[in-house]
Specification:
The chain has helices at residues 6-9, 21-31, 38-54; strands spanning 15-16, 69-75, 81-88, 96-98, 101-108, 110-120, 123-133, 136-141, 149-156, 160-167, 178-179. With 181 residues, the chain is an alpha+beta fold. A six-stranded mixed beta sheet has the order 1-2-3-10-5-8. A five-stranded mixed beta sheet has the order 4-9-6-7-11, with no helix packed on it.
């Protein structure tokens, strides 16, 4: 069976925004030459929460009716990336997975995060639903070198919302899944 990635199914153009170099450099200082584990996840969660207290994500109000928007704040040579996503009510991701580390920092809005487990041959079964009211952060630590970690789907439930995502590698390389009922 041919496997598809998030890049294959995401039809909106990602953009990048200047002026967030200090945030990204601070993030990289935390991530550099470190083991990817829960202590890293907790430290990044604190760092982003503190930064969001003083920095609005209003400059990322580039909403789309058809899909969430993606704006890169930075990408390191080692692969780490930070992306702000702008959401309108009803925008939702595909059911997809990520690299070894993935963090979701919901800055404003209300979301549903559905967690899945693989069942084989590109299919996955729902195992948990989380109702997220911002501000709230989640992260996942998976297997190194794989892009099939933390299978999930995010849906925006509020009129608009923003989230800041941090990944240990190119999030668009995550695999997509068909939902098994």
């Amino acid at each position: 069976m041919e496997r598809h990635t998030v890049a294959d199914s995401f039809n909106e153009q990602s953009t990048s925004k200047q002026g967030y170099e200090r945030f990204f450099e601070g993030m990289i200082d935390i991530c550099s030459a470190r083991e990817i584990d829960n202590s890293l996840g907790e430290e990044l969660k604190e760092y982003v929460a503190e930064w969001l207290k003083d920095n609005s994500l209003e400059p990322f109000d580039n909403y789309s009716e058809s899909a969430y928007s993606r704006t890169y704040l930075g990408r390191s040579a080692e692969g780490w990336e930070a992306i702000v996503m702008g959401w309108k009510q009803g925008n939702r991701t595909s059911v997809h997975s990520h690299p070894q580390f993935a963090a979701y920092n919901f800055a404003d809005g209300e979301f549903e995060v559905e967690i899945f487990e693989p069942t084989g041959e590109g299919r996955a079964r729902l195992v948990q639903r989380l109702h997220v009211v911002a501000p709230q952060s989640l992260y996942s630590v998976g297997r190194a070198g794989e892009f099939d970690n933390h299978i999930h789907r995010i849906t925006c439930l509020s009129p608009t919302g923003h989230s800041l995502h941090i990944y240990s590698d190119d999030a668009l390389q995550g695999l997509t899944y068909e939902v098994e009922e």
